[in-house]
Amino acid sequence: MPVSITVNGKHHRLDVAADTPLLYVLRNDLQLNGPKFGCGEAQCGACTVLVGGNATYSCVFPVGAVGQAHVSTVEGLGLGEGERLHALQKAFLAEQAAQCGYCSSGMLMAAKALLARNPNPDPATIRRELAGQKCRCGAHNRIVRAIERAAQELRA
Predict the structure, then answer these.
(1) Cβ(47)–Cβ(29) under 8 Å?
(2) Residue 43 in 3-state DSSP?
(3) Distance CA 134, CA 4 (A)
(4) Do residues 127 and 144 touch, judged by C-beta distance below 8 A?
(5) With 80 as the cut, is the pLDDT of residue 83 above it?
(6) Do 26 and 49 touch, CB atoms closer than 8 A?
(7) What is the 3-state secondary structure (H, E, C) of 71-90?
(8) In this structure, are residues 124 and 61 in contact, taking their beta carbons and an 8 Å threshold?
(9) pLDDT tens for residues 97-141?
(10) What domains lie within the chain, and their CATH numbers?
(11) In whole angstroms, what is the distance from residue 11 CA to residue 73 CA?
């Protein structure tokens, strides 16, 4: 059954089953490898993308449930800015907020959803909002600082 979705501003019509996890469509059909397969059970956050602006675990989200919502992946994060790095990406680099980098795309997308709802989050709010994003390297303190830095830049 054909499924139509818009990802990072580009419309796609795909011949996939509606119950196929969005992550598989993004990685296998669209070759967008930013979202990672971590656990496959919505427990780690490595697969987080935005669906209609909401942080969503794409490993358990059926592509057929996307409907008319737009999907954003880390590959599209800076696209609205002339293909430059987004403030979050710059802040992650400046704060050295990625060690192995496996969680980074999920962290970035969850942070983008947070900052869209709350442009001035305090560290406790950031930590609470990122509770579903796991970083096994232990970069959480740097990630929180990076999100604070990006929030400040985006407000300026």
Answers:
(1) no
(2) coil
(3) 31
(4) yes
(5) no
(6) yes
(7) EECHHHCCHHHCCCCCHHHH
(8) no
(9) 988 889 999 999 999 999 999 999 999 999 999 999 998 887 889
(10) 2-76 (3.10.20.30), 82-155 (1.10.150.120)
(11) 14
